[in-house]
């Protein structure tokens, strides 16, 4: 770990650290359950809730250990289980960062499950064998544990601590969950030596926001002498101001995902921290925050990123043939190189910023992550004589990038940027066959990306908003019979992102399974005949024509209530009346044309349905 204290060091002596602060009563005591929390009638505010967070309390503070500052994070959480669907709440994941020889350590892990058995309150302890370890990524290990004997009506409770040498990795806090939260509180005690930027987001108000100051004393060592047997250290005691932050939210409503939404982390109430700098006694301010230029240079010089995007010499023969075929047409050459790379290395559904192997090995294996595919794409485009450079971005499920905070951890994906004549440019991804060249996968449509150039000062943000739409056109002809059944013909066209989506489904499922799934979504439908068009041409809409029948009543009735058009409308509103501003990444266009014979001989029809919809943001 890089030391943030170059000349001073801390002595972890007993009694060497004193702290004075404004004491606050903790909102929860582990192991002391309020009997009212076992009463089912206490949780009626949200009838759809599968569980309720009764209390979530966390605290981060600085301690001295082995002569260095560490961050100690402690947490106590209590949850009421209301439905079987909430049983997975009993399995908890704690991410732990590690790098080199240093790693965050999980400690003081304990937990209980409370149940009412024959009118008596029982509690069952978390067993040590119920804990697991999983490698999440190159620098993150996840410790999992599962609380025992969970049932409807249970209250689960767990507590743990995390000690960290990584002062840049101050624990963030999320106040809002996918279930209601009765009380969420986070405290952070930060000495004046550390300057953290704090970013609060969300739509829920804080019930409490307090920031009193206190004093802490640290024993610092500044050198020493040796007689050959031991070192005599010269020390001094310094007093530092400490700010004791306290944030509380109460009665926080559940946050539920909406269609077209990016990850919920972009919208939930939370607070994030970033270490901006340090200021030690008798020293000036030292900035430790990243800069966009530093991120630019570090990535381009790194072997797992820039090193894999330099060339694709093992494709030189194929690239030479493409250059000859598309001479004088850089846009067509770009599309041809993309097609070559896509069919050389198949995307394995792993989204990565760094290459997981060399591009040559990914080529030999014919499989690789998004980074393996697109770094190879950049190298191949360069070998084709095109001006290609990487664009780093965050996928929709990874969260939005804040352009004010240069944090490499906020990026998890890379695509190619190609400069074309007449100041035109194109963004290219080679992971998906169903999308045409210049149309990014929907997972990449997340605001902006950072274009990395050899001269860092020239690097810039690029807009990821596409011109391609989500297009659906449907023409329906129906004929009703005297029993309320109907027969008809349907012509559908899927264009843009919807076309790419359904082409991908066709590739995976085949036509027969695709149509079975279509009929399954409409009760009573039978589709005896169908035909697809333009299944393998991703630059034109995918077309589908089919005939359908739907049986009516067994006998003729005096009055028929029929609404066949319900099968051709959205089953629910795309967005409910919630506060988040939701972006689907693209514009949506719908077109519907409906006609039919709704007046069989001898019947008088009342009411009607005729509409044409078009436009709208997704």
Task: Give the biggest beta sheet.
Answer: 11 strands, mixed
Q: What integer value in Å does the Rg equal?
A: 30 Å
Count of individual helical segments? 6
Intertermini distance: 45 Å
In the CATH hierarchy, what is the architecture of the largest domain at level 2? Answer: Sandwich
Strand content: 35-45%
What is the percent of helical residues? 10-25%
CATH topology of the largest domain: Immunoglobulin-like
According to CATH, what is the class of the largest domain? Mainly Beta
Overall body shape: flat
Mean pLDDT: 83
| Class from helix and strand fractions | mainly beta
What is the number of strand segments? 31
Describe the protein's architecture and organization.
With 618 residues, the chain is mainly beta. It has three domains: 254 residues, Immunoglobulin-like; 172 residues, C8orf32 fold (Roll), CATH 3.10.620; 113 residues, no CATH class. Helix content is 13%, strand content 39%. The protein has six helices and 31 strands. The strands form six sheets. Strands 1, 2, 3, 4, 7, 8, 11, 13, 15, 16 and 17 form an eleven-stranded mixed β-sheet that branches. It has a five-stranded antiparallel β-sheet with strand order 24-23-22-25-26, with helices on one face. Helix 3 packs across helix 5. It is flat.
């Amino acid at each position: 770990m890089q030391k943030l204290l170059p000349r001073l060091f801390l002595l972890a002596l007993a009694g060497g650290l004193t702290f004075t602060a404004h004491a606050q009563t903790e909102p929860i005591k582990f192991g002391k359950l309020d009997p009212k929390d076992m009463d089912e009638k206490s949780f009626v505010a949200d009838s759809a809730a599968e569980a309720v967070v009764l209390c979530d309390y966390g605290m981060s503070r600085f301690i001295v250990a082995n002569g260095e500052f560490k961050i100690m994070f402690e947490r106590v959480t209590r949850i009421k289980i209301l439905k079987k669907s909430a049983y997975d709440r009993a399995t908890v994941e704690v991410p732990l960062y590690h790098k080199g020889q240093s790693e965050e350590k999980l400690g003081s892990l304990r937990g209980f499950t409370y149940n009412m058995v024959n009118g008596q309150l029982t509690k069952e302890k978390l067993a040590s064998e119920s804990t697991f370890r999983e490698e999440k990524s190159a620098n993150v290990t996840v410790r999992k544990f599962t609380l025992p004997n969970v049932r409807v009506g249970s209250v689960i409770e767990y507590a743990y601590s995390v000690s960290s040498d990584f002062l840049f990795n101050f624990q963030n806090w999320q106040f809002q969950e996918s279930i209601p939260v009765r009380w969420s509180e986070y405290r952070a005690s930060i000495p004046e030596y550390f300057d953290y930027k704090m970013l609060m987001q969300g739509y829920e108000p804080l019930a409490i926001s307090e920031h009193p100051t206190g004093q802490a004393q640290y024993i610092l060592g500044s050198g020493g002498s040796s007689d050959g047997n031991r070192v005599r250290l010269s020390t001094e005691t310094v007093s530092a101001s400490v700010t004791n932050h306290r944030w509380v939210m109460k009665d926080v409503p559940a946050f539920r995902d909406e269609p077209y939404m990016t990850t919920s982390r972009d919208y939930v109430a939370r607070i994030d921290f970033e270490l901006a700098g340090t200021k030690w006694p008798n020293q000036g301010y030292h900035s430790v925050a990243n800069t966009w230029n530093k991120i630019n240079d570090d990535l381009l010089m790194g072997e797992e990123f820039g090193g894999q995007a330099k060339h694709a010499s093992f494709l030189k023969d194929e690239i030479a043939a493409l250059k000859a075929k598309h001479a004088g047409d850089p846009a067509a050459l770009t599309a041809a190189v993309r097609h070559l790379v896509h069919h050389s290395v198949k995307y394995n559904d792993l989204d990565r910023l760094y290459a997981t192997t060399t591009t040559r090995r990914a080529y030999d294996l014919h499989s690789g992550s998004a980074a393996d595919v697109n770094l190879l794409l950049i190298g191949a485009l360069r070998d084709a004589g095109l001006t290609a450079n990487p664009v780093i971005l965050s996928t929709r499920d990874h969260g939005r990038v804040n352009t004010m905070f240069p944090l490499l951890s906020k990026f998890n994906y890379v695509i190619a940027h190609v400069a074309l004549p007449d100041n035109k440019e194109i963004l290219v991804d080679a992971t998906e066959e169903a999308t045409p060249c210049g149309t990014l996968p929907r997972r990449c449509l997340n605001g902006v990306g950072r274009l990395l150039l050899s001269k860092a000062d020239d690097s810039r943000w690029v807009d990821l908003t596409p011109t391609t739409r989500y297009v659906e056109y449907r023409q329906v002809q129906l004929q009703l019979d005297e029993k309320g059944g109907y027969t008809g013909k349907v012509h559908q066209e899927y264009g843009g992102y919807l076309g790419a989506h359904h082409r991908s489904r066709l590739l995976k499922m085949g036509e027969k399974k695709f149509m079975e799934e279509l009929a399954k979504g409409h009760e009573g439908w039978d589709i005896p005949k169908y035909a697809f068009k333009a299944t393998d041409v991703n630059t034109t809409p995918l077309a589908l024509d089919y005939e359908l029948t739907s049986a009516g009543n067994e006998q003729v009735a005096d009055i028929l209530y029929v609404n066949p058009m319900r099968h051709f409308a959205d089953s629910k509103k795309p967005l409910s009346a919630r506060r988040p501003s939701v972006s689907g990444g693209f514009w949506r266009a719908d077109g519907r044309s409906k006609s039919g014979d709704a007046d069989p001989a001898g019947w008088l029809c009342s009411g009607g349905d005729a509409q044409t919809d078009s436009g709208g943001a997704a």
